[in-house]
């Protein structure tokens, strides 16, 4: 299952709202299965009836939409902003529309046009929510309005045609009624297929590894610009190679605290430099693997991180914020990270086949705490992105790649 709480932005709203929606889905679906009266209403005994298949369409829509909502909430969490609050309300309205569709579907003979117009309203809500996600997270990647419009227009044409024909014909042909009842199914299936192509398990079904890549210290050179900032503002005279510990102390603070403080500045985040060869390496890797970006920055900076990735042309499928949960990363096969603590957490909280690459930095030269993982070939060390490419042996099959990672490197 996808995780929502690990990157919820804002104060308390996103996490609790996500939990509410999940519970709401569970109660509605569970009650419809377990409660006899509701079960009789929502699951007509006649498989050949219009109501039965209308409910199949509605349940397919609700379940696939829940999966899509979960995915979008991970990548684009609710924030405590006006757009975020309105978006959360509209998502709640979408859930209520599914309840209405269940009602219309169970009484399809009397509510066929209501059923079709209900789907039109759902697509209008999808469009509005998508536009709000774009505003909230400042990126066009947050939604694909043209695709939603195409699906919505197809649904609108069907609803208008049904409304007109049922007014003209006192008794529409049965075949025509079946067409209208099933019309939302291929439209929703087409929408779901777009989502299905991007979820993690599709990459593994194709024999592709899913690789998570850390940002700071792996894609982004963060320590050097922070030290430059400290030199200018506080006359702290240190260089990157002085930082031999991730919490290296100086003048009553430490480098971790100063990095977190600096990354609250939007312009600073946008100006942080790209690691040498990182973009070129990821362009190569993205052709063979499913690439996700995993960052533990403050979730409120996610929009800045996405913009940075876009400006620097980094290819990836989604961004995961691990600020709350840490680098557990369910569904990921391999992690590239510069923090030994993240490497240990990743390896010890998942499949025994998991592996990791420690991206060498001055603060992780002491690998004593993971010598067992290095000797067992679960963790390899790379001193550059060229070394990462060598370790990952681009062009190898998944089985060959796993064997390569388990073989001692010269």
Molecular structure report:
The protein is α/β, with parallel strands linked by helices and 410 residues long. The protein has 18 helices and eight strands. It has a six-stranded parallel β-sheet with strand order 5-4-1-6-7-8, with helices on both faces. α13 (278-285) runs parallel beside α17. The longest helix is centred in the first third of the chain and has 30 residues, at 108-137. The relative contact order is 0.09.
In short, what is this structure?
This protein has 410 residues and is α/β, with parallel strands linked by helices.
Q: Residue-averaged pLDDT, rounded?
A: 81
Structural class: alpha/beta
Contiguous low-pLDDT stretches (5 residues minimum) are 1-17, 198-202
Strand content: 5-15%
How would the blueprint of this fold be written?
Layout: H1 13-34, H2 36-42, H3 50-75, H4 82-106, H5 108-137, H6 145-168, H7 174-182, H8 184-196, H9 200-205, E1 210-214, H10 223-234, E2 249-250, E3 253-254, H11 255-262, H12 266-271, H13 278-285, E4 290-295, H14 302-311, E5 318-321, E6 334-337, H15 340-347, E7 355-359, H16 371-375, E8 379-382, H17 385-392, H18 398-405
Helix pairs in contact: 1-2, 1-4, 3-4, 3-7, 3-8, 4-5, 5-6, 6-8, 13-17
Primary descriptors:
410 residues, alpha/beta, two-stranded antiparallel ribbon, 57% helix, disordered N terminus
């Amino acid at each position: 299952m996808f995780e929502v709480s690990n990157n919820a932005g804002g104060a308390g709203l996103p996490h609790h709202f996500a939990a509410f929606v999940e519970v709401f889905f569970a109660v509605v679906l569970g009650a419809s299965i377990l409660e006899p009266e509701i079960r009789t209403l929502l699951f007509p005994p006649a498989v050949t009836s219009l109501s039965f298949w209308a409910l199949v369409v509605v349940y397919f829509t609700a379940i696939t939409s829940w999966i899509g909502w979960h995915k979008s909430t991970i990548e684009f969490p609710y924030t405590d902003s006006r757009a975020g609050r309105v978006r959360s309300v509209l998502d709640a309205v979408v859930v209520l529309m599914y309840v209405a569709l269940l009602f219309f579907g169970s009484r399809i003979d009397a509510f066929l046009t209501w059923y079709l117009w209900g789907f039109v309203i759902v697509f209008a809500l999808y469009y509005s929510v998508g536009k709000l996600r774009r505003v909230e997270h400042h990126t066009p990647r947050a939604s694909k309005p043209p695709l939603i419009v195409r699906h919505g227009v197809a649904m609108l044409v069907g609803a208008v045609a049904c409304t007109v024909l049922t007014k003209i014909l006192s008794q529409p042909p049965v075949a025509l009624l079946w067409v209208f009842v099933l019309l939302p199914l291929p439209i929703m299936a087409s929408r779901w297929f777009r989502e299905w192509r991007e979820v993690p398990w599709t990459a593994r079904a194709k024999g592709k590894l899913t690789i998570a890549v850390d940002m700071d210290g792996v894609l982004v050179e963060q320590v050097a610009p922070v030290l430059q900032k400290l030199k200018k503002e506080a006359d702290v005279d240190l260089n990157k190679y002085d930082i031999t510990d991730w919490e290296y102390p100086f003048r009553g603070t430490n480098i971790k605290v100063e990095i977190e403080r600096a990354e609250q500045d939007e312009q600073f985040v946008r100006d942080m430099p790209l690691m040498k060869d990182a973009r070129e390496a990821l362009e190569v890797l993205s052709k063979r693997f499913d690439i996700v970006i995993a960052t533990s920055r403050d979730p409120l900076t996610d929009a800045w991180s996405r913009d940075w990735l876009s400006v620097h042309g980094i290819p990836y499928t989604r961004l995961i914020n691990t600020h709350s949960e840490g680098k557990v990363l369910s569904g990921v096969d391999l992690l590239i990270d510069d923090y030994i603590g993240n490497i240990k957490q990743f390896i010890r909280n998942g499949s025994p086949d998991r592996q990791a690459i420690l991206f060498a930095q001055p603060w992780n030269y002491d690998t004593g705490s993971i010598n067992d993982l290095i000797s067992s070939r679960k963790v390899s060390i790379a001193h550059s992105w060229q070394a990462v490419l060598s370790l990952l042996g681009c062009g190898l099959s998944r089985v060959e790649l796993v064997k390569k990672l388990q073989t001692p490197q010269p």
